[in-house]
C-alpha cells in the first residue's frame, strides 16, 4: 500500500498528463470542449479516476456530454499509455472518466444565494418604512408614587 502523499502526487501528475494529451495529442473533435478538473488514485496506485467537465460551443449552447464521454472512452487506451510514459510507475493505473458535478453544484449555490439576497433586500425595504406595533417605549418608567 502506497502512502497517501504519493497517491496525491500521482493523481496530480495524471491529471496534468491527461489534460495535455487531450489538448495537444488526441485529435478527436468530441474532446474539444473537455476540461480535466481533478484526478484521484486508489491507495494501491492501480486505478485512477479522472474527473472532467464539458463546455458548450457557445455560452448558451448545451454541452454534448454523451459525445464527450464516448470520445474519452475511445481515447482511454492512448491516454493510459501517455500516463504510463509520463509517470514512470511500475504499473500504469487504469483510467475511469467521471463527469464532474462541482461546477453545476456551484451554479446552483450561486442561484440560491442570489435568491436569498433578493429576499433580504425585500425585507429591508419593508423594514425601512415600518413602525413599532406597540408603544415606542414599551417599558414604563417607574414614578415616585409607586
What does this structure look like?
With 146 residues, the protein is of the alpha+beta class. Helices cover 49% and strands 15% of the residues. The protein contains 3 helices and 3 strands, in the order H-E-E-H-E-H. The chain has helices at residues 4-24, 65-87, 102-128, and strands at residues 34-41, 47-54, 94-99. Strands 1-2-3 form a 3-stranded mixed beta sheet. Strand 2, helix 2 and strand 3 (94-99) form a beta-alpha-beta unit. 18% of the residues are buried. The mean pLDDT is 88.
What descriptive keywords fit this protein?
alpha+beta, 3-stranded mixed beta sheet, 3 strands, 49% helix, 15% strand, elongated
Largest sheet: 3 strands, mixed
Multimeric organization: single chain
Helix content: 40-55%
Which series of helices and strands comes N to C? HEEHEH
**N-end to C-end Cα span:** 82 Å
Brief write-up:
By secondary structure, the chain is α+β, with helices and mostly antiparallel strands. Helices cover 49% and strands 15% of the residues. It contains 3 helices and 3 strands.
Fold topology:
Layout: H1 4-24, E1 34-41, E2 47-54, H2 65-87, E3 94-99, H3 102-128
Parallel strand pairs: 2-3
Antiparallel strand pairs: 1-2
Helix pairs in contact: 1-2
Amino acid at each position: 500500500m502506497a502512502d497517501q502523499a504519493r497517491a496525491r502526487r500521482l493523481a496530480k501528475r495524471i491529471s496534468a498528463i491527461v489534460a495535455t494529451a487531450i489538448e495537444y495529442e488526441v485529435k478527436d473533435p468530441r474532446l474539444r470542449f473537455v476540461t480535466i478538473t481533478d484526478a484521484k488514485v486508489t491507495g494501491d496506485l492501480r486505478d485512477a479516476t479522472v474527473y472532467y467537465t464539458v463546455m458548450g460551443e457557445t455560452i448558451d449552447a448545451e454541452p454534448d456530454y454523451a459525445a464527450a464521454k464516448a470520445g474519452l472512452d475511445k481515447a482511454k487506451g492512448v491516454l493510459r499509455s501517455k500516463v504510463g510514459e509520463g509517470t514512470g510507475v511500475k504499473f500504469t493505473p487504469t483510467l475511469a472518466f467521471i463527469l464532474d458535478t462541482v461546477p453545476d453544484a456551484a451554479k446552483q449555490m450561486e442561484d440560491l444565494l442570489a435568491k436569498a439576497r433578493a429576499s433580504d433586500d425585500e425585507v429591508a425595504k419593508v423594514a425601512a418604512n415600518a413602525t413599532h406595533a406597540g408603544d415606542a417605549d414599551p417599558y414604563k418608567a417607574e414614578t415616585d408614587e409607586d
